[in-house]
Amino acid sequence: MGNGTSRLYSALAKTLNSSAASQHPEYLVSPDSEHLEPIDPKELLEECRAVLHTRPPRFQRDFVDLRADCPTSHPPIRVMQWNILAQALGEGKDNFVQCPLEALKWEERKCLILEEILAYEPDILCLQEVDHYFDTFQPLLSRLGYQGTFFPKPWSPCLDVEHNNGPDGCALFFLQNRFKLVNSANIRLTAMTVKTNQVAIAQTLECKESERQFCVAVTHLKARTGWERFRSAQGCDLLQNLQSITQGAKVPLIVCGDFNAEPTEEVYRHFASSSLNLNSAYKLLSADGQSEPPYTTWKIRTSGECRHTLDYIWYSQHALSVTSALDLLTEEQIGPNRLPSFNYPSDHLSLVCDFGFNEEPGGLL
Ligand SMILES: NC(=O)C1=CN([C@@H]2O[C@H](COP(=O)(O)OP(=O)(O)OC[C@H]3O[C@@H](n4cnc5c(N)ncnc54)[C@H](OP(=O)(O)O)[C@@H]3O)[C@@H](O)[C@H]2O)C=CC1
Ligand SMILES: [Mg+2]
User: Fold this and answer.
1) Ligand 1 centroid vs 52 CA: distance in angstroms?
2) What is the pTM of this model?
3) CATH assignment of the domain containing 333
4) Residue 363 domain-assigned?
C-alpha cells in the first residue's frame, strides 16, 4: 500500500467508527473541510472494494442512450437521485425481514453507497434519508470536489432508534469545478398551511462552461398509505416554492425526490401538469416514452412484498433534454430476497441521468 493509499485508508477509517453526532444546530452548518486533502476517486473506489472483498460483486447497470438528435457543445450534466436508506431506519424501523442485519453493517454498507456514487460520478447528487452527513458524506465528498448542503427533518424518526447517528434528511451535493452556487433555499414543506416533518433543498447553480443557470431541488415526501392528500399538499407547496425560485419557470429546473407516491397519485399529477412544464426523466426508458419504470424500490416487510415506483427526476422539458439514463436493476439481479441486500445498500434504486441544455437560449422553457 503506497503513501497515498494509506492516507486514504485512514480517511475512510476515520468515518468507520463514527459515534452519534450531537443533536444541535451544527446540523445546519457544514464544517470547514477545505483544509482537507483532495482524494483521488479511483483510490477511494479501491479502498471501498477492499472493505467489500467478501461481498458479491456489484450489479452491472448500463446507460441507455436517449439522444434524439441534439448535439450539444457542452459536457452533459449528470444527476443522481437516491434514497440511500437511513442507517437508523434500516437497522431499527424498516423491518426488512429478508435482509440479514449483517448486510446492513454501516462499515460495509457505507462503502457500497460510496461505490455506487463513485461508479457513476454524478455532477449533482440528490440524496434522501442521510443520517451520516457530517461524519461520512460531507467530509469524503468535499475531498472529492463536491460542495454539500444538508437539511435534516425536524422530527426525524431516526431519533427514536437507540444508538442513532442523529436525524436523517435531504442532502444536495454538486461538483465545485463545474458549477457556481447562485442561490440556496432550505424549505420546510407545509401541507394546507401547516408545517410538516418533510423538507426540500433548492439551489440555483451556474454552469461554469456554458454560463447557463438552472435550479436543482431535492425532497422526500411523507411516506405510507393513507397520506396521499398530505403528500399532494406537500407537492403543491414545493411547486409553489419552485415557481418563485425559478422566477415563474424562467430558470430551467431539475427536481429529484423520493415522492413516496406511485404515478397514479395526485401529487404525481400535480407535477406532471404544473405550469413549470416538467417531464419525468425515467419515462424516457419506456418503449413509448410515456410509462414510468415498474419499480424504483423493492423490499419485503412483515406485511409482505413492497414493489413500487416512488422516485423521480423531473426536468423542464423545453429547456433541458435527457441524453442518457441508467437502466434499473432487473428482477433477477435484485434476487428473491429483494433489497437491501449484500449486493445493494438501499431499498431504493439510484436513478442517474445526463442532461443537456436545449439550443434555444432565451426561448420558451
Ligand atoms: N416528537 C414529535 O413531536 C414528532 C415525532 N415524529 C417522529 O417521526 C415519525 C414519523 O415521521 P415522518 O417524517 O412523518 O415519517 P414517514 O411516515 O415519512 O416515514 C419515515 C420513514 O419511514 C420509512 N417507512 C415507510 N413505510 C414504512 C413502514 N411500513 N415501516 C417502516 N418504515 C417505513 C420511510 O421510508 P421510505 O420513504 O423509503 O418509504 C421514511 O423514511 C414518528 O414515528 C415519530 O417518531 C414525527 C412528528 C412529530
Ligand atoms: Mg426508507
Assistant:
1) 30
2) 0.92
3) 3.60.10.10
4) no
